[in-house]
Amino acid sequence: MMENQTSEYDVIIVGAGLAGLAAAKAMHEEGKSYVVLEATDRSGGKVCSKVSEDSSRYFELGAQFVSEEMTEMVKLIKEAGMVLTRTEGTQDNRVISDKSKEPIYLDFHDITDTLGAISGEHFSSKPMDQVLEKHISQKRKRQILKSFIAAETTVNSRYINAEAIKNLISRVTTTTSGLDHQASGPLSNVVKHLESLNKDAIHYLEPVVKVKETKSGYTVKTKNKSKYHGKALIMAVPPTAAARITFSSALADHYRPYLDSYTDGAVIKMTFVYDKPFWRESAVKGKQKSIYGVVYSAHEGVNLMDSSIKGGENRLTLYIGGEKAIELADVPTEVKEFYARERLIEVLGEDAENYKDYEISEWQQSPYYGGGYGAIIHHHGLPDANEILREPYHTMVFASTELATDFPLFMEGAVLSGQYAAKRLIESMSESVTE
């Protein structure tokens, strides 16, 4: 596109992650003219598959797991020619603590229950760790809870707004862990499927730097000095990424307090491939439930899980989240591998270092994707920021997994958020026409 030449559309969508692609699909079905501006050279956002040259092995570098209750993702997986496959070990399994090796029983709803039990106290501006320190006297239980929270959010508990995390967790409506199934093939197939529906609309390597509200809609300028004008605008990027964009004064006044309420997570994901599932075999011999996961209470934000697909390769995935991920960001890969290997060995023994392959992916401090599974409202942030951002202001709205009314921080949340934003924006545009 030539400099200073402006293209006109009904809707501009910023970001080609799952939220942006879902919103684009909805606009396509509505017959709207639209463009999707993607800052990088690929679609999918935090959905990114690495497939070997001979297609014999693939790794999910980012998002990976679904449940049968995540109906929109299940539908997309099937449309992309795949089926759901059960994650090994999610039935008849146990999650253990790193130190005691004793089983622990935690899920998202334990955090909600813990906060719900603290009745009558206003903690909207208090960090999660202070709330836990005050109300959970048992140090061991407190450490496990803090590490579990940091592992699930990829943000250390000292930075998390307690009221906001209670709200977020209440929106995770699955009755399972949400990790019990995977697609039978690379999730990049889902991205390719969505791309095929919008192939002529996606413009790659067009990072948005400025958004200006005009009398007839919005003018968006990219780093390449391309200009686009739309009657409506969907910002389908994480709130932290949107916060780095310059908005015209009225938009900035409205949105800035809510965008600035978020902090990025950070996570390093390392998947190890083994010939034998020794962590299951030893459990069978000992007549115990198979070890499915480990919460490292001594390393806040670090957790391990059996990520094998039933009937597939034997795999363990270690997630290094929060401050530890940031600390390891700039060290050589060998140092990260050593740290991960030590965590495996300390719980599972020497067999854990006999892996035949591994893959590492890092999600820290990205200007476009954010850091961890999603941005989190920090303890100085506004607890209702997600509610404001997901509703249209004039004919502009935000969409991302953080804002989803259901399944936030999951792929399902991203898809639902994109669909919701498109629906609400179409309603808003219709109202503006009739006024």
From TrEMBL:
Occurrences of domain Amine oxidase (ranges): 18-426
Cofactor: FAD
Protein name: Monoamine oxidase
Residue numbers binding substrate: Y319
The keyword Zinc is annotated on this UniProt entry: no
Alphabetized UniProt keyword annotations: Oxidoreductase
Organism listed in the record: Alkalibacterium subtropicum
The organism's place on the tree of life at top rank: Bacteria
A single MF term (Gene Ontology): oxidoreductase activity
Residues binding FAD: E38, A39, V208, E402
Family named by the database record: Belongs to the flavin monoamine oxidase family.
